């Protein structure tokens, strides 16, 4: 079979696998998030946490709950890293330094999983599984909760209640993320991903060298790392590491898991708003962007658009033999289109323009298909912007899903759209302004160096977590600045989205009229894609032209 | 206790409950499963030679300096294939350093294998993503057959047959790329002697 046919079949198989799960998983998630019935284990959780599951919250209380849980999480994870040396399973590692511990706590709680450390020499097994992996579940559950609260804004009317965070959180973990993770982890274990508590096996190699083969509860963490679109690898090289992803099948499964929940969540959305076509429309926009980028990035790689790619005769720098070019580019587009940031190859060595497209994919706000929960609420923000633009064209008050988009909603949407670019561009500008912070660039003085810094802040501001990893990011400046970028890039939009949910829920639903813009048609999908690309394009084109475009063209 | 403090207290308690459920119970149960069903894989697919563990089938090794062994890809993990320092080079597509490395590797590999510089396999010129890539391409393996046979004083057909035995095709015919496991191949060569 030719390389191209095999590559196209991989893409086709991925789409087919997602299509198979789309309806059942979408329906399951809709039931889980709207059911009136609590499972026994959930009732136990509510009792232990001390909350009343039937008490719906106003948006402000819901937001305070999100922030309170996240603050407790940051504090807990920070302390665990600092004291790990005195705890069991530390495999000889000492406490993590303060700036790095803050950065990592912010990173995992915000679903970013930016890693300024190398897992195998920094984090003990207990920190990994009882600290980092817990936030893999928790941050994904927060994403789902916020998304479903926004959906309630559309489905409820004349109420100030948007749901109960503790219930949404608990159900997301117990009914969605944990069962999926168990199945995925079992599959990865059978494929050969490691799962042990070894502190390392010392071996003498065939030619008399020395290796320490690391251990760890990897497969269990790998599963939720992908399913929760977290992306924080157990080891430094993430899903390129053979212990995280031993073969092409495990790579395929991990790529599938990255996309599974965000894609199926559009079905959940369609069911909850009572019109499945609305879910298809969002999915169509997400899928079109994803597919275009897969085609573009893959074409740039296999056609060797870069001096080093041509010199080597293949785009294999930073890529694993068992995956090759096609599986690596497919993974790269999937991981930058979600908030995952897991990598099976190293983006810094991709073609110049290809690397720029990966930055742009994050800069779109990660909506193709986006992170768990955050992809849906990100896309809904853009959908509201799209109906507003359409409303301006024809001079009608815009409506979406039966709710009027008034100046209050548009203010919240505009602030939301502006937050991430501000974080990214100001952060990049500050980092490029000082010789000491420029010194972290591996490719200082070249367009690629700017791309390294731009990638870092785009990744942090969008809660992605992947990197042009040549940047030496474990400095006090980058640990702090990127930590703040992650927190602002996560929680300011979340509070704005919840405010939007509250504002929408208070409204009466307006009946459809013949003049109402249909938001399930190809026309609207085209408009939505246009708005998505134009907003991000206008924001990021200038800086992309100085970095990746200058390098690649 | 005011409302915000109550939320913080609930948040802290939720964190503890989740830690017990998904931070302890979940990985422990899966480790129990892995260790009872596929202990060899769960422990990292370790390989033995004469009863001694010499490495992992999933973690590449450096064979630099011993031409009787098949050589692995270049590695950016520490001094090369250091499993505690997994890393890619992260050098960019226009990096002068990377271009120079590729030129040097091409010249070295061509000299070692007695082949024309233009014929050197791309994976012999590029560092992998993990720096621990256990595989090389069938093309790079074929390039090394004559040298290994000569160094070991065995027939090229014997070596070629071993390469074939340690070559894995694409999964289901289309996933990933064909590849040769270097450590397993070299262990098989040693077992021949």
From TrEMBL, chain A:
Any single Gene Ontology cellular-component annotation: plasma membrane
Annotated localization: Cell membrane
MF (Gene Ontology): P-type potassium transmembrane transporter activity; potassium ion binding
Main location class: membrane
Membrane topology value: Multi-pass membrane protein
UniProt-listed Pfam families: KdpA
Domain of life: Bacteria
Membrane spanning stretches: 59-80, 87-109, 129-151, 172-194, 256-273, 280-300, 376-394, 415-435, 481-502, 523-544
Keyword field: Cell membrane, Ion transport, Membrane, Potassium, Potassium transport, Transmembrane, Transmembrane helix, Transport
InterPro entries to which the protein is assigned, alphabetical: KdpA (IPR004623)
Subunit structure: The system is composed of three essential subunits: KdpA, KdpB and KdpC.
Family: Belongs to the KdpA family.
Function (record text): Part of the high-affinity ATP-driven potassium transport (or Kdp) system, which catalyzes the hydrolysis of ATP coupled with the electrogenic transport of potassium into the cytoplasm. This subunit binds the extracellular potassium ions and delivers the ions to the membrane domain of KdpB through an intramembrane tunnel.
Name of the protein in its database record: Potassium-transporting ATPase potassium-binding subunit
Naturally occurring in which organism (per UniProt): Nocardioides agariphilus
Designated gene of the protein: kdpA
UniProtKB/TrEMBL annotation, chain B:
Pfam family, one: KdpC
Cellular-component GO terms for this entry: plasma membrane
Transmembrane spans: 12-34
UniProt keyword annotation of DNA repair present: no
Example of a GO MF term: ATP binding
Assembly and oligomerization: The system is composed of three essential subunits: KdpA, KdpB and KdpC.
Purpose: Part of the high-affinity ATP-driven potassium transport (or Kdp) system, which catalyzes the hydrolysis of ATP coupled with the electrogenic transport of potassium into the cytoplasm. This subunit acts as a catalytic chaperone that increases the ATP-binding affinity of the ATP-hydrolyzing subunit KdpB by the formation of a transient KdpB/KdpC/ATP ternary complex.
Protein name: Potassium-transporting ATPase KdpC subunit
Gene symbol of the encoding locus: kdpC
């Amino acid at each position: 079979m030719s390389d191209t046919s095999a590559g196209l079949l991989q893409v086709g198989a991925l789409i087919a696998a997602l299509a198979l799960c789309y309806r059942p998983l979408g329906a399951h998630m809709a039931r889980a998030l709207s059911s009136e019935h609590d499972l026994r284990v959930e009732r136990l959780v509510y009792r232990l946490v001390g909350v009343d599951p039937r008490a719906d919250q106003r948006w402000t209380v819901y937001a305070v709950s999100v922030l309170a849980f996240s603050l407790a999480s940051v504090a807990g994870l920070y302390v665990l890293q600092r004291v790990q040396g005195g705890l069991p399973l530390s495999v000889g590692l000492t406490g993590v330094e303060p700036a790095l511990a803050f950065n990592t706590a912010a990173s995992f709680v915000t679903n970013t999983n930016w890693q300024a450390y190398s897992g195998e020499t920094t984090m003990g097994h207990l920190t990994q599984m009882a600290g980092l992996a817990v936030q893999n579940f928790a941050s994904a559950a927060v994403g789902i909760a916020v998304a479903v609260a926004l959906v309630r804004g559309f489905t409820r009317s004349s109420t100030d209640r948007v749901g109960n965070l503790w219930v949404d959180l608990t159900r997301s973990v117990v009914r969605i993320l944990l069962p999926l993770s168990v199945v995925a982890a079992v599959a990865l274990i059978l494929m050969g991903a490691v799962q042990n508590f070894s502190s390392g096996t010392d071996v003498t190699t065939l030619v008399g060298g020395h290796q320490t083969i690391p251990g760890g509860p990897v497969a269990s963490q790998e599963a939720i790392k992908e399913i929760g679109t977290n992306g924080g690898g157990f080891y430094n090289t993430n899903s390129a590491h053979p212990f995280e992803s031993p073969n092409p099948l495990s790579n395929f499964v991990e790529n599938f898991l990255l996309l599974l929940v965000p894609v199926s969540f559009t079905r959940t959305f369609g069911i909850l708003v009572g019109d499945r076509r609305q879910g298809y429309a969002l999915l169509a926009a997400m899928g079109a962007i994803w597919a275009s980028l897969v085609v573009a990035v893959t074409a740039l790689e296999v056609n060797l658009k870069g001096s080093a790619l041509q010199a080597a005769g293949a785009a294999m720098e930073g890529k694993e033999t068992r995956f090759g070019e096609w599986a690596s580019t497919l993974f790269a587009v999937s991981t930058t289109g979600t908030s995952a940031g897991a990598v099976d190859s190293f983006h810094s060595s991709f073609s110049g323009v290809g690397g720029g497209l990966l930055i742009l994919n994050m800069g779109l706000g990660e909506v193709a298909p986006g992170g768990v929960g955050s992809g849906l609420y990100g896309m809904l923000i853009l959908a509201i912007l799209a109906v507003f633009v359409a409303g301006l064209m024809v001079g009608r008050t815009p409506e979406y899903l039966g709710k009027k988009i008034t100046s209050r909603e548009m203010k919240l949407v505009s602030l939301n759209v502006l937050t991430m670019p501000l974080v990214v561009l100001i952060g990049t500008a500050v980092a490029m302004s000082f010789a000491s912070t420029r010194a972290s660039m591996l490719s200082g003085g070249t367009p690629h160096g700017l791309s390294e810094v731009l990638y870092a802040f785009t990744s942090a501001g969008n809660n992605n977590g992947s990197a042009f990893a040549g940047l030496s990011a474990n400095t006090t400046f980058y640990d702090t600045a990127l930590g703040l970028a992650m927190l602002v890039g996560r929680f300011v939009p979340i509070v704005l989205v919840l405010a939007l949910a509250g504002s929408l829920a208070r409204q009466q639903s307006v009946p459809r009229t013949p003049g109402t813009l249909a938001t399930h048609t190809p026309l609207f999908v085209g408009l939505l894609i246009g708005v998505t690309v134009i907003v991000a394009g206008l924001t990021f084109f200038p800086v992309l032209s100085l970095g990746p475009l200058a390098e690649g063209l | 206790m005011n409302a915000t403090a109550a939320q913080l207290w609930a948040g802290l308690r939720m964190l503890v409950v989740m830690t017990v459920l998904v931070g302890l119970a979940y990985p422990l149960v899966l480790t129990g499963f892995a260790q009872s069903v596929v202990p060899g894989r769960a422990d990292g697919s370790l390989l033995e030679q004469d009863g001694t563990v010499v490495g992992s089938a999933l973690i590449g090794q450096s064979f630099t300096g011993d031409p009787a062994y098949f050589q692995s890809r270049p590695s950016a993990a520490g001094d090369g294939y250091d499993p505690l320092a997994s890393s890619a080079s992260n050098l960019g597509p226009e990096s002068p350093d990377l271009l120079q490395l590729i030129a040097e590797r091409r010249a070295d590999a061509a000299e070692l294998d007695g082949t024309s510089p233009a014929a050197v396999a791309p994976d012999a010129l590029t560092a992998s993503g993990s720096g621990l890539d256990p595989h090389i391409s069938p093309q790079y393996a074929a390039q090394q057959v004559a040298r290994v046979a000569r160094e070991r004083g065995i027939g090229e057909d014997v070596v070629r047959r071993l390469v074939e035995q340690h070559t894995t095709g694409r999964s289901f015919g289309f996933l990933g790329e064909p590849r040769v496991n270097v450590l397993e191949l070299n262990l098989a060569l040693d077992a021949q002697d």
